[in-house]
Amino acid sequence: MTNNTDGVPARWADLRRFTPARVALGRAGNGVPTAAHLDFQAAHAAARDAVHATLDVAALRADLAAAGMPSIAVHSKASDRRSYLLRPDLGRRLGDRTAIPALPGAMLFVVCDGLSATAVQRHATAVLRHAVPHVAGPVAPIVIAEQGRVALGDDIGEAMGAEAVAVLIGERPGLSAADSLGVYLTWQPRRGCTDAERNCISNIRPEGLAPDAAASKLLWLIGAMRRLRVTGVPLKDEQPAELAAPDD
């Protein structure tokens, strides 16, 4: 088998065209080459930074307002990042509930910093801008939640009386992606919902699932959810591959 200039077998090196995973790194004695080692260290630092990054709520609200979407800012019961990381239960419960209006039957979108505020800052507005204008029926103001986990959407949705909630949240950073956004859709949200009652769209970022394509998939799932009146395991993602993304 022919080797390339890095001393990596050609067939292994070809895999780099198909995945950002660390394959065919080559060797330097018993270790990896210096460049590969430094790249790993940089990726690890980026992942740690994403976990500890602070969501710029004011900037996010300004972006949403510029796109014609009013918003509400709330906070979970996790008072700070340390509490959020050490006490996942606090991130699932809403702190001050007075800012949440009663909007029975509305479609609710909640934006949580999650484990990557970087992902939320970069991609959440784009997904919402492509999705929200195409949702039929009443849509609640976007709720931006600091120190929030997926189940926080259940607490907010129950307080609001929402028909359903879509939680946009920063996913756990990996060593190939520190800015991946996820969306979790739940029918008739309430405290105690399980993950089996949700549908997830993952890896939303330019190098993964583009925001407009994610919005298209979310709109399809919302339509199917309303027809079947259910989300989670009974709701299969059977979106036709040729279905176009919504127009701006």
Describe the structure.
There is one protein chain. The chain is of the alpha/beta class and about 250 residues long. It has a domain of about 170 residues: Ethanolamine ammonia-lyase light chain (EutC) (Rossmann fold). It is built from seven helices and six strands. It has a six-stranded mixed beta sheet with strand order 1-3-2-4-5-6, with helices on both faces. Strand 2, helix 5 and strand 3 form a beta-alpha-beta unit. The longest helix has 19 residues. The mean pLDDT is about 85.
CATH homologous superfamily of the domain at 56-228 - what is it?
Ethanolamine ammonia-lyase light chain (EutC)
Largest sheet: 6 strands, mixed
Order of the strands making up the biggest sheet: 1-3-2-4-5-6
What is the averaged pLDDT score? 87
Approximate helicity band = 25-40%
Described by the principal axes of the CA atoms, the overall outline is globular
Radius of gyration: 20 Å
The arrangement of helices and strands along the chain is HHHEHEHEHEEEH
